[in-house]
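As agreed, record passed on underneath.
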Amino acid sequence: MSLAGTTARMLARFGRGMVLQRRIGKTEAFTSATRLGKESAYKPTELVGLVQQGDLKVIIGPDLGAIAAPLKKPDRILIDGIAYTIQGAIPRYAGAVVDGYELWVRGG
């Protein structure tokens, strides 16, 4: 089994539907893409820099649908219908291939 697709396999087993959103201009309309994701809370030892208690870490696959990379503030993700603002996104690599993204989100 290769490393490529590791994130996709993990999300297929443990992930659930989440909606990525990017505002269209200065309107109240959004471009949306439903993707599998897996959220978790930051551990106390990870609360460094600008990461705050209550922030979440979300893992999503490499396909962002209608939302073009890079994901950044003020893009958001809906988890169980609750909007979280993306504070940052780091690509996850398997070799030279982007295998997914780790998002740092705040809100709720």
Observations:
- The mean pLDDT is 91.
- The helical segments are 6-14.
